[in-house]
Amino acid sequence: MWRKFLTYEGSLIVLVSTLISDHTILFEILFMLNIVNLITGCIKAKISHKENSIHGLKGIFKKISYWIVIFLAFMIAYTMTEIGNLIEEDFSAMYFLGWFVLASLIINECRSIIENLVESGCNVPRIFTKGLETAEILIEMEKENGKNNRNSKYDKLDGNQER
Asked: What is the pTM of this model?
């Protein structure tokens, strides 16, 4: 079961990182964090006597779904950029969507690993857990700012025209 998971996830990483070849290390970091999170989650379950194959499958599905979301975010950016080239508009800023998703998932994996370690009885410095909380808060604030500061030129595309 684990081999299939790693094979599928590895294939998805190769596909996505081929599209964004200059920054493959970021995708590799997320992949390594996925593996570490899976391992620490299994250890936590073993220590707390809460081993359950259904929870394990849900965890694997969640990791695979992360990669699907990353793939979709970058594919949307690529598609919109290509369409922009056809209509002579610059939509290259859409790649921000993919990078934002990737950054959010890296922070999410780090927080999950820290949570697994804490629940397994490991002493984790408080400053580390606070730092990850702060990073997540900043990303959430940026998400909200993005919603509130949309360019009115593009508001018309989704029907949010001023009347």
From this structure: 0.69
